[in-house]
From TrEMBL, chains A, B:
Keywords: Flavoprotein, FMN, NADP, Oxidoreductase
Keyword Secreted: no
Key word tRNA processing present: no
Nitroreductase domain location: 9-165
Family named by the database record: Belongs to the flavin oxidoreductase frp family.
A GO molecular-function annotation: oxidoreductase activity
Protein known as: Oxygen-insensitive NADPH nitroreductase
InterPro entries: Flavin_OxRdtase_Frp, Nitroreductase, Nitroreductase-like
Name of the gene encoding the protein in the UniProt record: nfsA
Entries under CDD domains matching the protein: NfsA-like
Length: 248, 248
């Protein structure tokens, strides 16, 4: 295993940070490395808002579900799928009345994937530089308010946040599904998940017990049932439609 | 700049491959590195179909728009957003008639982002091992047929393909937008894109001219106008609805 793969295999989410600011040059290097990820048809349909202002981080910590580390991390990168910049850039070349398709499911996928690939490259860069990161899906909890606060325009939306900072204590690594559960050969085999998933239930039960001194031991399949049956962020469709996304 | 960042900055899409097969152990290592990417609430909502069968690659090359390298690459990884595996795994813990929310826009985002983060980690791993990669968005051109061919179940969809193999000739690197165009500080500033985008139009014009011996010189903003006004993959919404996605 080479050093890059070894670094990827060492990934863990960091939720406790040294409060010292990150040099602006490092944040720019992290984002520039993110930009080198592949992008569909070179549309580069994403933007990043780097939040370093303490008052703003405090507000965002509340809006994302009172996650203290959103406030205490030195920088919160808010990764946005963004079809707004390219739409404005293209304006001069589009005839009045000509139809544009930023509102299609396809365009939504392109922008969401572009933002995600760039963000993950940035995460790898940050970790190589000694920083720790944590994705913040909670940015979608009160996404309307987050969007107003950060001035996100139409045809753009915050996909997730990412806390970045120097870790100030070691954090544990959560085991993943066995590779057999996710990797299929030449054809998706719905049956092959069963064995590995059962094995993973046991792995996760042991992991949770060890972390909580025996207080928690919910199997992964049960946690998934709880996740699936929770009416989570059901405002997203209306929010996205109002932003001009997913209309057809 | 450290070596990992240097590798990320060296990324280029590879479209011409040495045909020799990739050892299965390498493909497993690439996917396992992908799995270490962050995942929302540990749902791990993605699967990968590794297509190595020559006849299948040939069919997929046709279905993705006659991209020869889909056939000639030794392995095509088809990355699927997958809420099917976890839904089946959770079944035993869900009461009959209890409502589940795999069909929400939120769940669709979770699965699409999960697949993308894993894929980008895998891309970084593959490149560190000397392989080249190329994302294939064309997998969505005739996605219904691709899904049948690979046996993708409901509540799952192929987000993109990824050709993997040893590069057999050097390939050029496409310049990206200046970091100033994508990185905002504390608040999205719609005005700050203008200058950098104009600069990028010039960069891309020079890049295209150099690559095509002067035959092509379309500015990026015009290419974006063409992209926006092309009715691209408008079947996606209906396809996704039929798969059980994006119903609310």
């Amino acid at each position: 295993m080479n050093e890059v793969v070894a670094q990827l295999m060492q990934h863990r989410s960091v939720r406790s940070f040294d409060p010292s600011p990150i040099p602006e040059a490092d944040l720019r290097e992290i984002v520039a490395a993110g930009q080198m990820a592949s992008t569909s048809s070179n549309v580069q349909a994403y933007s990043v808002v780097a939040v370093t202002d303490p008052a703003l981080k405090r507000e965002l910590a509340v809006l994302t579900g009172n996650q203290a580390y959103v406030e205490t991390c030195p920088a919160l990168l808010v990764w946005c799928a963004d079809l707004n910049r390219l739409s404005r850039a293209a304006e001069a070349h589009i005839a009045p009345g000509e139809e544009a398709y930023a509102d299609s499911a396809e365009s939504f996928i392109v922008a969401t994937v572009d933002a995600s690939l760039a963000a993950q490259n940035a995460a790898v860069a940050a970790e190589s530089m000694g920083y720790g990161i944590c994705y913040i899906g909670g940015i979608r909890n009160r996404i309307e308010e987050v969007s107003s606060l950060l001035g996100i325009p139409s045809l753009a939306y915050p996909v997730f946040g990412m806390c970045v900072g120097l870790p100030d204590q070691p954090s544990g690594q959560r085991p993943r599904l066995p590779v057999e559960a996710v990797l299929h050969w030449n054809r998706y085999d719905a049956e092959r998940g069963h064995g590995p998933v059962g094995e993973y239930d046991e792995t996760m039960t042991r992991y949770l017990q060890a972390r909580t001194e025996g207080r928690k031991s919910t199997p992964w399949t049960k946690i998934m049932a709880e996740w699936l049956t929770r009416p989570n962020r059901l405002h997203m469709m209306e929010y996205l439609n109002n932003r001009g996304f997913l209309k057809r």
